Amino acid sequence: QVQLVESGGGLVQPGGSLRLSCAAFTVTLDYYAIGWFRQAPGEEREGISCTESTDRSTTYAEDVKGRFTVSVDRAKNMVYLQMDSLKPGDTGTYYCAAGDYCSGHIVRAARMIRGPGTQVTVSS
To answer: Taking the CA of residue 49 as centre, how many other CA atoms within 13 Å lie in the half-sphere pointing to its CB?
Structure first.
């Protein structure tokens, strides 16, 4: 069973940056589409990016396009989410997920594999 663990969350001021990491254990991420989600308090979970398993191209949600960047380190079996120009509206718990394919910026899977999440708070 694939296990995913996110890290790198924290408190940051508006306009600041954070880099989240997603580490995979037991299997390689090469075979999966990788998605990032976030969930703000009292809100539904929303997809923010999806990286294809084939060419590792990434599609971003409009709200984060130009500010967030996904990168994949195949040697380390890790995925990163670089978040710049953070806004208070970016506050939430961020999750990475391994799935079957991307539907735009949303990762889809018959059985989604998701980590426990890491908290990001953007506040002055």
So the answer is: 24
